[in-house]
Amino acid sequence: MTFSDVVGQEHITQTLKKQVASDKLSHAYLFTGTRGTGKTTCAKVLARAINCIAPKDGDPCNCCPSCLGLIEGSMPDVLEIDAASNSGVDNIRSMREEAVFTPAVLKKRVYIIDEVHMLSTGAFNALLKTLEEPPAHVVFILATTEVHKVPATVLSRCQRFAFKRLIPSDIEVRLVSIAAAERIVLSEGAAKRIARLADGSMRDAISLLDQCAVGVMEVNEEAVSALLGLAGDEQGAALARRVLARDTKGALELFGSLYDSGRDGAVMLDELCVIFRDMLVDTQQGRPPAPRADAARLIYCITTVQEAQARIQRVLNRRIEAEVCLIKLCDESLSSDPAALLARLTRLEQGDIMVKEIPQKTEHIEPPERSKTSKQPEQVKQQKQSAGSAVSWDSLLTEVNKTLPRPVAAQLALCEGEVRGGEVFIYADSAFTKGKLLGSGVQDTFAECAKTLTGSEYVITITEKAHDEQQVIVSEKKERDDTFSGLIDKLNELDSATIE
Length: 500
Fold this sequence. Notes:
Blueprint: H1 10-22, E1 28-32, H2 39-51, H3 65-72, E2 78-82, H4 89-99, E3 109-114, H5 121-132, E4 138-144, H6 152-155, E5 159-162, H7 168-181, H8 188-197, H9 202-212, H10 221-228, H11 233-244, H12 248-260, H13 265-284, H14 295-312, H15 318-330, H16 338-349, E6 354-355, H17 377-386, H18 393-401, H19 406-413, E7 416-420, E8 423-428, H20 431-438, H21 442-454, E9 459-464, H22 468-496, E10 498-499
Parallel strand pairs: 1-4, 1-5, 2-3, 3-4, 8-9
Antiparallel strand pairs: 6-10, 7-8
Helix pairs in contact: 1-2, 2-3, 4-5, 7-8, 7-9, 8-9, 8-10, 11-12, 11-13, 12-15, 13-14, 14-15, 14-16, 16-22, 17-21, 18-21
């Protein structure tokens, strides 16, 4: 195997080939990326290329004693370490002790550490010491799927290469090549299907191909669907159409027939999610959406399916969970999720349902009697303030400080505050300050000044500053819940007065 056999990572393999050809190697490399994208494969090829006696344009020749020895695994100078099972500091210390010795056979001693993010803190510190002062004959190749767990001090001492997720077309070409070499009859549709299911991982694609090729004369779409429990493109699309048409009965019947024929409920939900995702992307890219497939509805469908997917792995009867999900997909009114409310509102706005005229309740309000005497300007000002006007914390604090004793005002200066609705919150910096304020009549003073400024009654609360964030969260949650509750009531009122 050479760098050319690493699929879809040309931006990395070309750079590594140039480094090998020019003999300008780094002492440490870090390969990052999702599973099955070629990190470990590329590390092994690089280890052979570094030690190859006659490399060809940066590729190992795979014919010299060094290459053959590494292919057979008989060379002690190249060591692969699985950090998941060798994460302790002692493992890295023993590696450091070996690294100071020159290679026994090869030109360079190479250490490949897979899943390096699994190393302990002590192991990382031991590794860092070697990376800071590496011997000239040692090369480290680190590989990880979770680069955010690797310390920044280690990252800064490595040449980092990010392996991208493979696109389905690249995986498909590789699968066809492997099938031809292994004399497996692989149809074009099956290759496309497996490539899409692999989700960017070449290793997963090869595993699926091996699984599907056992005991069959030809690997076609039907064989892939039957073996992996898939609904199939046509049947999956038919299920999605019935969901979007809000045909609950038809969706449940089709799902039931597919489930009884051996299809897996969790896999079918995953297929539905992919179909809805493709529709959503199409609508955002300017393509005409499918009937009843507006963005709000599709987002609701994707969210609902993902929630069901998270639960379905924990329940005993997957069929029930999948069927409940389908029922919620067909009828948004069964869910109080914000995405469901948005989908219902969009449905109303687009005229998907016709709304009956809802009789409006009117109340007869008697006009206020005119005062026989004219009011003074100050009375008019106070009446306007009492008509629901709000007061700010700064203006209220200024008014309160006019009447407070200096020691109490000094204690109040250490506090923060806010006016929210009909309440005034005073956040003391400590329990001591809170106790002083509670015992000094500050609450009564604030209440009187707030009523003087607005004409309304205010509730005064004194608490410690540490509770500020939690109190805001609770208050905002209550307001949000009240908003959603009112919105749900309004939608239910509209639904009860509509004709499909």
